[in-house]
Structure to design on (156 residues):
C-alpha cells in the first residue's frame, strides 16, 4: 500500500501494463475480461490520438519495481445527442489496497489536464445508481448530475 512518502507517477499506458491492468480489473470487479482490455488497449493505447486517453498510476516498491495502482480511460466525444465536445471517462479503477491514498484523485486530475490541453471544458461519466463508492468519488471530484437522462430497454 502506498504511503505519503512514496512518489506516485501518472503516465500514458504502455503494452507492458496490459497484464497488470487485466489482473487489477479482475481483482476489483471479480470478472476477468482480457479480450475487452486488449481491445481497449488497441483503441486507446500507445500511438493513439491525443483525444483518446488511457493513463496508469504507479508507485515504486522498495525493490524498485513499479506497482500498478490504478488506471483511467476516457475520450473526447462530440455532438452525440446534441452535446458540445466534452471529455468522457468510461473506466476508472484503483487497487483496493491503494484506496484513500490519493490515487483516484491523481488519475482524475491527470485526465482533466489532458482534456483541458485539447480544449475540453466539461467532463462526463456514467455511474450505476447502486455503486456508492463510485458515486461518492465522482461527487467528491465536483461532478454532479448533468442535463441528460440515460434510458434503457431490455431486448429479450
Amino acid at each position: 500500500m502506498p504511503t505519503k512518502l512514496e512518489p506516485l507517477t501518472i503516465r500514458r499506458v504502455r503494452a507492458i501494463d496490459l497484464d497488470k491492468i487485466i489482473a487489477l480489473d479482475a481483482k476489483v470487479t471479480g470478472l476477468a475480461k482480457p479480450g475487452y482490455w486488449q481491445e481497449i488497449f488497441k483503441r486507446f493505447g500507445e500511438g493513439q490520438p491525443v483525444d483518446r486517453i488511457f493513463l496508469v498510476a504507479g508507485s515504486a516498491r522498495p525493490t524498485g519495481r513499479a506497482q500498478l495502482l490504478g488506471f483511467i480511460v476516457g475520450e473526447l466525444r462530440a455532438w452525440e445527442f446534441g452535446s458540445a465536445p466534452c471529455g468522457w471517462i468510461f473506466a476508472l479503477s484503483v487497487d483496493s489496497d491503494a484506496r484513500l491514498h490519493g490515487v483516484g484523485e491523481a488519475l482524475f486530475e491527470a485526465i482533466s489536464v489532458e482534456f483541458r490541453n485539447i480544449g475540453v471544458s466539461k467532463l462526463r461519466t456514467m455511474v450505476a445508481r447502486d455503486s456508492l463508492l463510485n458515486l461518492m468519488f465522482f461527487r467528491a471530484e465536483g461532478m454532479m448530475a448533468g442535463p441528460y437522462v440515460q434510458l434503457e430497454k431490455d431486448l429479450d
